[in-house]
Amino acid sequence: MPEYPEQLRIVMAERPSGPVELRHFRTETAPVPTRGGDQVLLRAVYVSVAPGARAVMRSPSYRPQLTVGEVIPSSAISEVVASPSGGPAPGTMVAVGNGGWQEYSLASPSEVRPLPKFRPLSRHLGLLGFNGLTAYFSVRAVASVHAGDTVVVSGAAGGVGHLAGQIARVHGARVVGITSSDRKNAMLVDQLGFAAAVNRTSDTVAEDLQAACPDGVDAFLDTVGGDVLNAVLPLLTQQARVALIGTSSRHDSGQSTPSPPDLAFQVFTKRLQLEGFRSTDLTDRWAVAFQDLQAMASNGDVHVLEDIRNGLEAAPQALVEMMSGGNLGQLAIRVRPEPADWPTD
Length: 345
Fold this sequence. Notes:
By secondary structure, the protein is α/β, with parallel strands linked by helices.
């Protein structure tokens, strides 16, 4: 029997038809789920706030479409409360892909990943979680970035983008970021080593991109899609590589941005490589990726940006702000204090 018979959780109260608002969420009290004999009961410490949650509120994605009353999905860093024989011991800190916006969740032992004591714990949600893996493999495996390449990253101040741009820079590329504000652009250039950055809300975004990429774009890491993809497409060089790792521009819109009418022509004549990608496609390479990511952060080559809010009730406002461009780096919610024995410095 869990220590707490009830838990707090956040569910979808209404399906958005346009920009997500607080009224689309409901905070409620519900029973702590009853653990089956082959399940692990988890207590959340951190939950992620990511565009993917907004995506499934609208339509099916890599997860099924959310229905009214369902818990908002998210990855989480959690503590094991109870476990079957052979599973992780109670007190073990684990990463879980779908803990959701709730204090307690259930998973099978195969769905949780025990965490090494790399500090701080929140890094396992971003740098050493799905965002870091997506950034790493989009650079190393999908776009195959080489020294001397010009690489453009959209959503470049977000959880994936700010890491992907820095990893590309570490590999010798000249990196240009695309964000939604001049403030974010200044941060990318002044703090993270981007060569240039462009504001996608500017009336001159196409001209600004061309000026920032005078020799064209060899690789494009796209987390946004829509008009941003349309703006970059004409600048792609022969045999340029495009890693399609997000479509955040469509999530808060009532309709999708049409694809460029000459997309097939450009792909054919330029011999472009466009590939949709999720980090779960390469689980056999995660161990090496984690080692490389940890090393890049430890030696100062990659700087991690985090925006951590306190309390599960803060999650809806955090997602609303994210979808309007109001966050920097990994956005997460601290549900409860970290374990006392976890290193902090």
